[in-house]
Amino acid sequence: MADSGTHDWRARFGDAMMRTIAPPLAMLVRGEGCYVWDEEGTKYLDFLAGIAVNSLGHAHPALVAAVTDQVGRLAHVSNYFASPPQLELAERLKRLTGAGQAGRVYFCSSGAEANEAAFKLARLNTSGGRRTRILSLHDSFHGRTMGALALSGKPAMREPFLPVPGGVEHIPATLEALDAALDDTVAALFLEPVQGEAGVIDLPDGFLQQARELCTRHGVLLILDEVQTGAGRTGEWFAYQREGILPDALTLAKGIGGGLPIGALVTFGAASELFQRGQHGSTYAGNPLVTATANAVLGTIEADDLVANAAHRGEQLRQILAGLGSPLVSEVRGRGLLLGVGLTEPVAQRLTAAAQSNGLIVNAANEYTIRLAPPLIVGDAELADFERRFRLALASI
Ligand SMILES: *Cc1c(COP(=O)(O)O)cnc(C)c1O
User: Fold this and answer.
1) Residue 116 is labelled as binding a ligand
2) pLDDT recorded at residue 129
3) The CATH number of domain 74-303, selected from 3.20.20.60, 3.40.640.10, 3.90.180.10, 3.30.750.24
4) Fewer CB within 10 A of the terminal residue: the chain, N end or C end?
5) pLDDT per residue as tens digits for the range 176-200
6) 53 is in an annotated binding site
7) Which residues contact 161 (CB under 8 A, 6 or more apart)?
8) CA of 228 to the centre of ligand 1 (A)
9) What is the 373 CA–ligand 1 centroid distance (Å)?
């Protein structure tokens, strides 16, 4: 480190890291609350939170305590053994999701892995004969592994890696398309309640209820991907709760771990009976360290009522955005603290860079969308700071 210095980290990154992503925007070394610092000591207000991961912000005392305590006690055991934090988290997720007595939880280490597990679950749905089709939506994002890639509705992402697992069809997010595509040959329908990666796109009104009704009628598993929307981010514990429905399966990751890698598949009702012993697993699945951390994250969200805070602060953030009076801002999409600021011009990258120059981290979900996903602990001071910095960014482009 010493002789290579920090000034040439970009060159080091270019030499050492696989070229899977664009060159990084900064080198971050520390975080506290809703702020992070780069290697030169510059402070940024973090309104991306590791893409909806840092629910409690950075270095939250509950997170630090949970990791520190558990890593010194028991970090990992094989799946031949159970551990107290694992069972506590599974029971907590059953309670929070409303999965009820029949619900079950499978743990893994990422969102893509949770969707891989859900994909296998879908293949096991053979009720009433052969179900050869799996449906998901245009522009959907479910992860980068082969199965998750097959589910994702972005052809350009899949194309270099064909063939991907077969049987997946992508349909537009319209009630008509849903109606036309769903029948007894379908094993499962995958949906994100809000399409985060696509640019924070809400489902049409009534879409989830209609999906629930049709899936029930045709014996199709309704599988909701709440990797990005789950754990309080939308102002509900899980976005489907606002619609008054339950899925057959739910995939989670990102915000439930607050920064440690964890994913989960939660099943409801009869879907809990599909996986049989030996059909799936992972070495890290629900190890004590990550599950203890997730318990601390979800326990803090509960104790501090951060779900209500997400709803309340999300409304305030919408008011701030409306009050900017910027001709560049055409609309605000999303819910709670997962918002997409729609732009009238394709300048999201430039605006993100301008925000960064003004000490604010936001994300260009696409060229016409700025995505905001601040930590759920965000308060008055951070919102005021956001307004000031975002105004400066808008004024500078
Ligand atoms: C991020 C994301 C994934 C993939 O999660 P990873 O942890 O990156 O594998 C899947 N689905 C949705 C909706 C996501 O936002």
Assistant:
1) no
2) 84
3) 3.40.640.10
4) N
5) 999 999 999 999 999 999 999 999 9
6) no
7) 146, 149
8) 7
9) 14
